[in-house]
């Protein structure tokens, strides 16, 4: 089945009549079939690393708003500074853990604060620490084979001091 789907998709990419912007993502670049990597299929390969501190700060604000909390009541800078190596999903997990812990501790009487999220971050190790050597290998591969896409990398390259990531979610 996978082979048929790949074949159909590649044929469509080759024969499509209208302008289409195709984006693909992968967590394991080595599992991407070689036929996808041939020149002309995808024009560029980007590497998005774990979020830098300013990116984590914006992610935290977005996640707090999604959780129905006023992000301005939290010290997102402090949370971001202690969450080096955490992915966006792991930041979300920390907020969820904090919400659950505070609810259980206070029988629903209290709400989370910055300290609860920081405590939740300390309750588990991020994948980047658990699989540190895997992350080092992929980063080395990306330096050679990809265009680096994190905002901080782009900002440094273009000599921009701060990039605002707030997308109003």
Key terms for this structure?
single chain; mainly alpha; two-stranded parallel sheet; 169 residues; elongated; disordered C terminus
Overall structural class, as computed from helix and strand content, comes to mainly alpha
Main sheet, how many strands, which sense, barrel?
2 strands, parallel
Number of strands: 2
Spell out the helices and strands N to C: HHEHHHHHHEH
The percentage of residues in β strands lies in under 5%
Overall 3D shape: elongated
> N-to-C terminal Cα separation, in Å?
37 Å
Rg, please?
20 Å
Oligomer: single chain
Describe this structure in words.
About 55% of the residues lie in helices and about 0% in strands. The protein has nine helices and two strands, in the order H-H-E-H-H-H-H-H-H-E-H. The chain has helices at about 1-15, 35, 55-65, 75-80, 90-105, 115-120, 125-130, 130-145, 150-155, and strands at about 45, 145-150. Helix 3 crosses helix 5 and helix 5 (about 90-105) crosses helix 6. The protein is elongated, with a radius of gyration of 20 Å.
Layout of secondary structure:
Blueprint: H1 2-15, H2 34-37, E1 46-47, H3 53-66, H4 76-81, H5 88-106, H6 114-121, H7 127-130, H8 132-145, E2 147-148, H9 151-157
Parallel strand pairs: 1-2
Helix pairs in contact: 3-5, 5-6
